[in-house]
Design brief:
Blueprint: E1 6-7, H1 63-68, E2 74-78, E3 83-87, H2 89-95, H3 104-107, H4 109-113, H5 117-126, E4 130-136, E5 142-152, E6 163-170, H6 172-198, E7 211-217, E8 227-236, E9 239-247, H7 252-269, H8 275-289, E10 295-303, E11 308-314, E12 319-322, E13 328-331, E14 335-336, E15 355-358, E16 363-368, H9 380-393, H10 398-408, E17 419-426, H11 432-435, E18 438-443, H12 450-464, H13 469-489, E19 495-500, E20 504-511, H14 531-538, E21 541-546, E22 552-559
Parallel strand pairs: 11-14
Antiparallel strand pairs: 1-5, 2-3, 2-6, 4-5, 5-6, 7-17, 8-9, 9-10, 10-11, 11-15, 12-13, 12-16, 16-17, 18-19, 19-20, 20-22, 21-22
Helix pairs in contact: 7-8, 9-10, 12-13, 13-14
Length: 562
Amino acid sequence: MNFTRWSARLPGTQRRAAARDDHSSVPAARAESVRPKATAAPPDDTSETPAPATGPALEALPARELLGLLPAPVALLHGPDHRITYVNAAYTSAFGPRPSGAPAAEAMPELAELSLLPLMDQVLRSGTPRTVKSRKVLAGSSYTVTCTPVATGAPEDPDGEAGVLVYATDVTDHAEAAERLRSSERRHRETAVTLQRSLLPQDLEQPDDLRIAATYQPGGTDAAVGGDWYDVITLGAGRTALVIGDVMGRGVRAAAVMGQLRTAVRAYARLDLPPHEVLQLLDVLAAEIDASQIATCAYAVHDPNEGHLVYASAGHLPILVCDEDGTVHRAEDPTGPPLGTGGTGGTGGWVHTSGTIPLPPGSTAVLYTDGLVERRSEDIDEGVAALERALSGAKGTPQVVCDRLIRSLGVTAEHDDDVAVLVVQHPARTGTSAELFHNASLDLLGGIEAAPRARAFATGVLASWRFPVELCDLGVLAASELVANSLQHGTPPMRLGLRRTDRRLIIEVTDGDDHLPRRRRAEPADEAGRGISIVATIASSWGSRRTPGGGKAVWCEFALPA
């Protein structure tokens, strides 16, 4: 095998044109090293004599000896079918002996495992070195491989075949360390996402009058969790609270603040306060939790008897509502500052207010965080406008609308910000479905004679709705007690309202007095004070709230038999 035909361009070495110098040439095929002859100094030269060379010059080493001394696997291949010319001892140790002259595709399966055969074709055609990093063979080792073109170096054969020098570096330890690091990062991210999702509702509450779906997608591929959240809270009497919020920043601290705010919202919602009062309380709490954390929040309440959303916003993006015909409306005002920034310590300054936006049957409302619409390359208003266009054409169930909005806004797994979307549909019911939803009301005029009229009204309405006799009796009793309580402690105007859905019967009495009733223990000798206790005992649930006009509403619910 004549290696004088090959010029191996290894990193840090270069073959010199020694063959053209008659005074320093050494036959490469002879594994000899010649000590350079000492040159006599001129008689008048008083300088010291140079030390003789202690070893062969690099260009004097034959290619076989040079490649054989390398600790890394090296193979030399030539021709279009990459016939084996030479493999060094390190290559034989790593992959076994290889027959000289055999095509690499047949005799070197490790090159196929490393996907090097097409790469060597490219190197042979282009004459440009190529490197592949950290490729794994079936035996389990990983290699970084450089394929370098080599050309004939014999003057008598200028048209000889070109070849490829394959130089492999074992990087198994580095690859395994990198894989351990990637696995650790994946576990940390999975833990972080699990933590984040555990702070969100596990199962969304589904009110009788609405259909709701939500989507949360963590941003980026790092282990940092975000502070986006959403919630659906049934308030009783058919009313539903919808919440979307975003704690700025990322990390466990943001997630912890988010968890505290979400818990606080649920607690304040149970007080059945107007949206702006809920945000006012939340504003104070946010400043106490962590004054350095900024959070935005939108809180809305849907009442099926009113046909609109009553909402308040603390620095959050506007709620969007799409009518059945595709027209999209923004809930622009009123919007206050983010939570915790309303004043010193959150106790003064800005006073939040509530607004309304229609939500008629057949419409869809979308609450979302800024990760859905904010892009570094464009103004956020452009993102909201893009969301409006996507919502206008999105049809289907709430979950389908969620997925379509995510896709339309270009949110992928590599998106760099958390995204939370809450889609709320108020379905337009027709036919048999519509027969399951009814409303009836009676103005309570006059004095004590209003009580028997209320009982007669409740009896007739519940019988027409074809409820079982036992449920009709319980409903009439509850209506009588609520009306009697209102007549005794309330002020006009008074109204009795009955509502049925596919799952429950709701009885509600409103009056002009804003003092909320409370359940108390009546002594045996007391002639009054048992009405609310009776209602609480026979009904599935009950409650009271102040109404926007300054009065109050007291209600109770009965679950319908399956």
